[in-house]
Amino acid sequence: MAKHIAIAGNIGAGKTTLAKLLSTHFDWEVQLEDMNDNPYISDFYEDMQRWSFNLQVYFLTQRWNGIKAIRKGKRTVVQDRSIYEDAHIFAPNLHAMGLMSTRDFENYTDLFDSISEQVQQPDLLIYLRTGIPKLVNQIQMRGRDYEDAIRLDYLKRLNERYEAWINTYEGELLIFNTDDLEFADNPDDQNKIISQIDSVMNGLFSKKKA
Known about the structure:
Radius of gyration: 17 Å
Number of strands: 5
Largest sheet: 5 strands, parallel
Distance between the termini: 14 Å
Order of helices and strands: EHEHHEHHEHHEH
């Protein structure tokens, strides 16, 4: 039975790296955020207040289309970032920081609420919990020019919102503290993660439809 696996975590947490690792190991399809073709991302980091609403609507549309494709498909898919993170973390954070107007935030929330009525939770959500020093280091290592403008207070606020959200998440959940893991290039850490996910997935695949 095909499953939907979503990987959640702050900017630079290692979502793409883990998604590719799991795709290779389990022979799952992988659905990544394509930042290179994102028409708003560079403008957003240069002027968050001007482009926040446009960017969040773009992300919401892309993730909604991605979820529809996953549910129509016949293979298990691992997705880089869930649709919930935009609505519960990024958009509220932008609004709280004064970088998205109340009018735009309410409009965005209404749009998300309408879409979320048609969205099923992922069969498994994997949350990568990562401290600010490691986030900054990994963001710097990947060298995306538009990310040079990311502010530390922005990352910190996002981390706080991630923790608040994950504490209320009611679906199937697996958390990895990535400050203690180097799964990008450490085979032992890769095996630790794969082993835990494999154990959970065996349970999920054995569940019968209600």
